[in-house]
Amino acid sequence: MSKNIKLMQGNEACIEAALMVGMRFYAGYPITPSTELAELSAEKLPYYGGKFIQMEDEIAGIAAAIGGSLAGLKSMTATSGPGFSLKQENIGYAMIAEVPLVIVNVQRGGPSTGLPTSPAQGDIMQAKWGTHGDHPVIALSPESVPETFELTIRAFNLAEKYRTPVMLLTDEIVGHMREKIEIPAIEEIEIFNRLKPIEGKEYLPYKIEEGDIVPRMASYGEGYRYHVTGLFHDETGFPSNSSENAELMLNHLMSKVEDNLDDIITYEEYMIEDAEFLIVAYGSTSRTARSAVKILRQEGIKVGMFRPITIWPSPEKRLREISKNIKNILVAEMNLGQYVYEIQRIVKSNSEVYHIGRANGEVLMPSEIVTKVKEVL
Amino acid sequence: MSSTLISNYFREANLPHIWCPGCSNGIVTRALVKAIDELGLDKNKVTVVSGIGCSSRAPGYLDFNTLHTTHGRALAFATGLKLANPDLEVIVITGDGDVSAIGGNHLIHAARRNINITTIVFNNNIYGMTGGQYSPTTPTHALGTTAPHGNIDKPFDITQLAAAAGATYAARTTSYHVNQLIKYIKKGIENKGFSLIEAASICPTYYGRKNKSGSAVKMMEFLRDNYIDIKAYDKLPDDKKIGKETMGEFKEITLPEYTDEYLRLIENLKGAEK
């Protein structure tokens, strides 16, 4: 069979992948630079028997998507900067109610309306801490169009497997750039669907069955007549004020992610075997960093790059291991210093951490990273 | 009779409810259940969605598919559920603050789409759960904990707001006029489109105490004596209209329904090139 090779935008690849992995519900609100995600969903979903709805605002967009997921459809919403801020409360709702959902944030310059058509990586910390209370976050960051495809599939699979909202943090560059992409056949794609209640067994909507990671999920209308709330609840799904129960529930929410880091976390190591200096970069900035590594290597400087693909939870274990042999680490990102704090926390006893960043809508250039590395050396 | 309603439609293990003595939320909740019973709806398809507030706790007591969402957003969650699975009989329970302040945008757009959702508004003219702050339906000059010197706001008429925004069925009655309330809820559920039924309610604990409205019984008598059918109200001379409130069916029309239109769109694309 001939290969299905296309020239595609990042946002297009995202919807292509979403449809292949089974996304059948999209609710959102128009916002640059994520609009193609809504437009393509509106165009294509009806052919698959799926549903698209443009809601009255960003909050309604995520609310309707949660509703779609509870009705049994794989659901998605997408947004950028200001819209991501507006969605935060309901992101927390999906976390505590354990509703699978994919949220794409095509990052743009902020704060506020900021730079609507320019790239940024300014929502890294908001992705982790934006909604109130303690909660685990899964966020993935692609650096290219093919990887946007791959990580969209992964985002849906992780959402279904761990019953939690999963964020795809792209940015204006990855979202709008066009690259060659080979679309795999549907049979080649690994698809995970949420586990359904065991037939004939009493169903408690938040009870975890032996050997499972999360409670099994019935769809509304299937006959289970259960309750979902944003309040702390027990196995029955009904509210509970008890602090013992709240602790149990929080432990479950945290541990379903923390106990499965090897499954959730992916990263790329580039020329790190003999590296004496490490650049940490993610998303579109890693493309700049990779060029910088090549330039520096030509000059005989032993530099490597570590690229977290899963941003949250961070690839802490591996990075700490690598940092034992690295004196200096430079974090490059399109903000004025966000992920650098996470890297500092991880490597603090091993390496000195430096930062190069910018949030004026311009990308970092390889030459700037090269200069910064030489400065540090 | 009540006992069969309770055993058939309530989650008895979750009772008693959290509402204060004298609160009319129980009356309105029972009216909804009675309407569902009389219509013979399939419990497995009935989906009750609520926001945040006193009335929004009702779904927890009801043996249906129930969803207690975030403040003001019940209609947005409900829209997702209904569009994703149009077979669900979606009913939203909400309060005056939930639906007309923080959730006002979702109300007008759900009405505009004419999506087949029945919304029951428990309007007690106050934020009860947080302790008696004025809401968008608190009358001008009334007192609330955030209107200690008297409310200078003008109140919303939620039923007329929904009717103007595109609801195809909009009616108001009170928690005193229970049989009429049951009838309106049944008509709302049967209407294929967006329906809103406003139940003027009482909050003796916060609204009543703050405004010296008297006992719960006195407040119920106020509903009995001061709510007048719109047709009769229109015929009253102006001086007799003072202090009176209107009830009745404000809108009842037929228009294409949103999820029907979407399913038609899917049908029309069948066989076409993707």
Description:
The complex is a heterodimer of chains A (377) and B (274). Chain A is of the alpha/beta class and 377 residues long. Chain A folds into 2 domains: 4-188, Thiamin diphosphate (ThDP)-binding fold, Pyr/PP domains (Rossmann fold), CATH 3.40.50.970; 266-376, Rossmann fold (3-Layer(aba) Sandwich), CATH 3.40.50.920. Chain A is built from 13 helices and 16 strands. Chain A has helices at 10-21, 35-44, 58-70, 81-97, 124-129, 145-162, 172-176, 243-258, 261-264, 285-298, 316-323, 339-347, 366-376, and strands at 4-9, 23-28, 51-54, 74-79, 101-109, 115-119, 138-140, 165-171, 178-183, 227-229, 267-270, 277-281, 303-308, 310-312, 328-333, 352-357. In chain A, strands 2, 3, 4, 5, 6, 7, 8 and 14 form an 8-stranded mixed sheet that branches. In chain A, strands 11-13-12-15-16 form a 5-stranded mixed sheet, sandwiched between helices. In chain A, helix 12 links the parallel strand 15 and strand 16. In chain A, helix 1 packs parallel to helix 6 (145-162). The model of chain A has no long low-confidence stretch (mean pLDDT 97). Chain B has 274 residues and is α/β, with parallel strands linked by helices. Chain B has a single domain (2-269), classed as Rossmann fold (3-Layer(aba) Sandwich), CATH 3.40.50. Chain B contains 12 helices and 10 strands. Chain B has helices spanning 2-9, 25-39, 74-84, 96-102, 104-113, 158-165, 178-190, 204-210, 216-226, 230-235, 238-241, 258-269; strands at 46-50, 65-68, 89-95, 117-123, 126-127, 133-134, 169-174, 195-200, 227-229, 245-252. In chain B, the strands form 2 sheets. Chain B has an 8-stranded mixed sheet with strand order 2-1-3-4-8-7-10-9, with helices on both faces. Chain B has a two-stranded antiparallel sheet with strand order 5-6. The longest helix of chain B has 15 residues, at 25-39. At the A-B interface, strand 2, helix 3, helix 4 and strand 10 of A face strand 2, helix 3, helix 5 and helix 12 of B.
